[in-house]
Amino acid sequence: QVQLVESGGGLVQAGGSLRLSCVVSGSIIGINFGAWYRQAPGKQRELVAIITSASSTNYADSVKGRFTISRDNAKNTVYLQMNSLEPDDTAVYYCNANVMSRTELNPSYWGRGTQVTVSS
């Protein structure tokens, strides 16, 4: 019933910017934690950024100063603003959300991912 849909990925040149969106729909009250992960071919999935219900944030060292995670509680949406993109940022980006539910205790969900490709 609960779905996460990522959007905003695409092809961009090094130094460019993209903004990813993760819309959480279904029977939820709101989002507790929102996070972005990424996985490049042949690499393990890694945590990129996380935002709490109080809007505190943490980032992987590789993206600090370049990426910003944010949220819009009214829209049940988590964003990832990516600036100064580098070829090493190329990956499939996945949204993960731990939500407040009327029927379950703090369930978490994954989106299907969106491709980000950075050319040099």
List its traits.
seven-stranded mixed beta sheet, 0% helix, mainly beta, four-stranded antiparallel beta sheet
Tell me the Rg in angstroms: 14 Å
Amino-to-carboxy terminus distance: 40 Å
Largest sheet: 7 strands, mixed
Low-confidence stretches: none
Quaternary structure of the protein: single chain
Number of strands: 11
* Structural class by secondary-structure content: mainly beta
How are helices and strands ordered from N to C?
EEEEEEEEEEE
Helix content: under 10%
Q: Give the rounded overall mean pLDDT.
A: 96
Strand content: over 45%
What shape does the CA trace take? Answer: elongated
Count of helical stretches: 0
Walk me through the structure.
The protein is mainly β and 120 residues long. The chain has no helices and eleven strands. It has strands at 3-7, 10-13, 18-25, 28-39, 46-51, 57-59, 67-72, 77-82, 91-101, 108-110, 114-119. β7 and β8 form a beta hairpin. The protein is elongated.
Map the helices and strands.
Blueprint: E1 3-7, E2 10-13, E3 18-25, E4 28-39, E5 46-51, E6 57-59, E7 67-72, E8 77-82, E9 91-101, E10 108-110, E11 114-119
Parallel strand pairs: 2-11
Antiparallel strand pairs: 1-3, 3-8, 4-5, 4-9, 5-6, 7-8, 9-10, 9-11
The gist of it:
By secondary structure, the protein is mainly beta. The protein has strands spanning 3-7, 10-13, 18-25, 28-39, 46-51, 57-59, 67-72, 77-82, 91-101, 108-110, 114-119.
